[in-house]
């Protein structure tokens, strides 16, 4: 579907329905595996540093492929992209489901990721060109229901399946659904695209892969290996160098693979900055809370998943409501209210104790998710609304790429805060002992030190959330801007409007 200046008279609801079903399956897969990692470690006899590649590898493939989706959307029809994405996802799911060795499981997971990476930008681009600006909030709200609803049920469903069946059932459960969705797409998607002379610059692809891949791998590894490890800082340096070269190259191309000229539009730039900072803060809850609940409090995986379920479901159900509120009131009011709620609840999580009740945790997490539901989609939609139509593929690709990178940075940063503070608390407690500590004393000190580290990491996340709250005060309702290159030979300019 080619970006056009005016949306069609009637949005293609059939096309959107098929795309959303496909997106739901791929998003569900993203959170299905987390609770199964201990079972996979035991079954395949691998250690934590190896099994984490199932998450890191998935993130790496996403980070490498998402920047290419702007080119793919311009080059190919929605039908071709959907069938290709779902075909790859199905192939990866089958491979992973029958894996009896870790390399095959990792291969299946990365093939899955290659399909998943294409799905979300394609769906977002179709929605942008299908609805006028004044109705995009409601449309994006429905999209948010899919985006948030699938991960909401993922951990609980995964916990139940792993408790009753082999972990491979997670993939066998998804396989027939993905196959049916692929067949639906084959028979129902009929859109065509005129032949396009857009060509992929392979050197740009190499630079993008090294740049984004290096950053993602470096920051993802920092949490387990430490910042001083050569693998961490060398890959980050290589990533920064390649990314700088990539940006400079794109600025000189008539048809860039990823157009950084979108940052000339202030509403988009602000929304991208808020989304990056918010994603870093958001990962604190996804990462630190399960660690506190399972490692310190000894709550079972399925109970941990159930604790997070009300918040995730509320976030999903609020998405259509938030979309309609966005159409009526704009993004700033929603973002300021949502970020205020999120900042306060994140601060409450920085004061956890050994006696904090299960109910308290559930309530705080649910309210926190409520606040988050008022921010993510309105902020990103407001930014995309300012872009001229031909920039839509680049805007959606950039949004998804920045979220991957900021998620990796946020995870590494918060894990580092937690680890360093945990070590400091443990060393201080041991130094104050007057006798040789017993194993039981060491265990108690270790638990208290980890709790202190988690609380400090949540406090840093509170500051990050407060920064995004201040930035949200500058949001203005965006309207489509004039294309600065309209009528001219397409060329990226680094100059401001």
TrEMBL record:
<feature type="transmembrane region" description="Helical">
    <location>
        <begin position="138"/>
        <end position="157"/>
    </location>
</feature>
<keyword id="KW-1003">Cell membrane</keyword>
<feature type="domain" description="Major facilitator superfamily (MFS) profile">
    <location>
        <begin position="15"/>
        <end position="480"/>
    </location>
</feature>
<dbReference type="InterPro" id="IPR020846">
    <property type="entry name" value="MFS_dom"/>
</dbReference>
<feature type="transmembrane region" description="Helical">
    <location>
        <begin position="268"/>
        <end position="293"/>
    </location>
</feature>
<feature type="transmembrane region" description="Helical">
    <location>
        <begin position="169"/>
        <end position="188"/>
    </location>
</feature>
<comment type="similarity">
    <text>Belongs to the major facilitator superfamily. EmrB family.</text>
</comment>
<feature type="transmembrane region" description="Helical">
    <location>
        <begin position="80"/>
        <end position="101"/>
    </location>
</feature>
<keyword id="KW-1133">Transmembrane helix</keyword>
<dbReference type="InterPro" id="IPR011701">
    <property type="entry name" value="MFS"/>
</dbReference>
<feature type="transmembrane region" description="Helical">
    <location>
        <begin position="113"/>
        <end position="131"/>
    </location>
</feature>
<keyword id="KW-0813">Transport</keyword>
<feature type="transmembrane region" description="Helical">
    <location>
        <begin position="12"/>
        <end position="33"/>
    </location>
</feature>
<feature type="transmembrane region" description="Helical">
    <location>
        <begin position="457"/>
        <end position="475"/>
    </location>
</feature>
<protein>
    <submittedName>
        <fullName>DHA2 family efflux MFS transporter permease subunit</fullName>
    </submittedName>
</protein>
<dbReference type="GO" id="GO:0022857">
    <property type="term" value="F:transmembrane transporter activity"/>
</dbReference>
<dbReference type="Pfam" id="PF07690">
    <property type="entry name" value="MFS_1"/>
</dbReference>
<feature type="transmembrane region" description="Helical">
    <location>
        <begin position="329"/>
        <end position="349"/>
    </location>
</feature>
<keyword id="KW-0812">Transmembrane</keyword>
<feature type="transmembrane region" description="Helical">
    <location>
        <begin position="200"/>
        <end position="219"/>
    </location>
</feature>
<dbReference type="InterPro" id="IPR036259">
    <property type="entry name" value="MFS_trans_sf"/>
</dbReference>
<dbReference type="GO" id="GO:0005886">
    <property type="term" value="C:plasma membrane"/>
</dbReference>
<feature type="transmembrane region" description="Helical">
    <location>
        <begin position="53"/>
        <end position="73"/>
    </location>
</feature>
<keyword id="KW-0472">Membrane</keyword>
<feature type="transmembrane region" description="Helical">
    <location>
        <begin position="299"/>
        <end position="317"/>
    </location>
</feature>
<feature type="transmembrane region" description="Helical">
    <location>
        <begin position="231"/>
        <end position="248"/>
    </location>
</feature>
<dbReference type="InterPro" id="IPR004638">
    <property type="entry name" value="EmrB-like"/>
</dbReference>
């Amino acid at each position: 579907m080619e970006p056009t200046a005016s949306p069609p008279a009637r949005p293609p609801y059939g096309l959107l329905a098929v795309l959303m079903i496909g997106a739901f399956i791929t998003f569900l897969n993203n959170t299905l595996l987390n609770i199964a990692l201990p079972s996979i470690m035991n079954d395949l006899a691998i250690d934590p540093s190896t099994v984490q590649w199932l998450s890191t590898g998935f993130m790496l493939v996403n980070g490498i492929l998402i920047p290419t989706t702007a080119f793919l959307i311009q080059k190919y029809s929605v039908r071709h992209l959907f069938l290709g994405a779902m075909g790859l996802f199905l192939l990866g799911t089958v491979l992973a489901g029958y894996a009896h060795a870790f390399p095959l499981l990792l291969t299946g997971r990365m093939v899955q990721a290659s399909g998943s990476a294409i799905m979300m930008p394609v769906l977002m681009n179709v929605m942008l060109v299908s609805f006028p600006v004044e109705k995009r909030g409601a449309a994006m709200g429905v999209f948010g229901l899919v985006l948030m609803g699938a991960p909401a049920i993922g951990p609980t469903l995964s916990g139940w399946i792993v408790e009753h069946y082999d972990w491979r059932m997670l993939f066998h459960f998804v396989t027939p659904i993905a196959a049916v969705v692929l067949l639906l797409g084959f028979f129902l998607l009929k859109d065509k695209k005129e032949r396009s002379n857009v060509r992929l610059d392979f050197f740009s692809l190499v630079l993008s892969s090294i740049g984004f891949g290096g950053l993602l791998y470096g920051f993802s590894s920092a949490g387990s290996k430490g910042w001083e490890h050569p693998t961490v800082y060398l890959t980050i340096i290589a990533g920064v160098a390649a990314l700088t070269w990539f940006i400079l190259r794109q600025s000189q191309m008539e048809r860039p693979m990823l157009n950084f000229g979108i940052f000339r539009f202030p509403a988009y730039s602000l929304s991208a900055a808020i989304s990056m900072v918010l994603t870093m803060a958001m990962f604190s809850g996804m990462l630190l809370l399960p660690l506190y609940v399972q490692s310190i409090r000894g709550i079972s995986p399925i109970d941990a998943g159930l604790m997070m379920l009300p918040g995730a479901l509320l976030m999903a159900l609020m998405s259509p409501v938030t979309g309609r509120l966005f159409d009526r009131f704009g993004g700033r009011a929603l973002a300021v209210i949502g970020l205020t709620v999120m900042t306060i609840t994140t601060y409450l999580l920085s004061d956890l104790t050994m006696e904090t009740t299960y109910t308290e945790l559930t309530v705080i997490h649910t309210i926190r998710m409520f606040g988050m539901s008022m921010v993510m989609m309105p902020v990103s939609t407001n930014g995309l609304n300012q872009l001229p139509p031909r920039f839509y593929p680049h805007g959606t690709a950039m949004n998804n790429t920045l979220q991957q990178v900021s998620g990796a940075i946020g995870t590494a940063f918060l894990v580092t805060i937690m680890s360093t503070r945990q070590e400091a608390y443990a060393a201080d407690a041991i130094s104050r002992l007057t006798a040789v500590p017993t194993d039981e004393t060491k265990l108690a000190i270790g638990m208290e030190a980890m709790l202190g580290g988690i609380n400090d990491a949540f406090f840093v996340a509170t500051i990050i959330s407060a920064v995004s709250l201040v930035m949200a005060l500058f949001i203005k309702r965006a309207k489509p801007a004039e294309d600065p290159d309209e009528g001219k030979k397409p060329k990226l300019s680094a100059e401001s409007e």
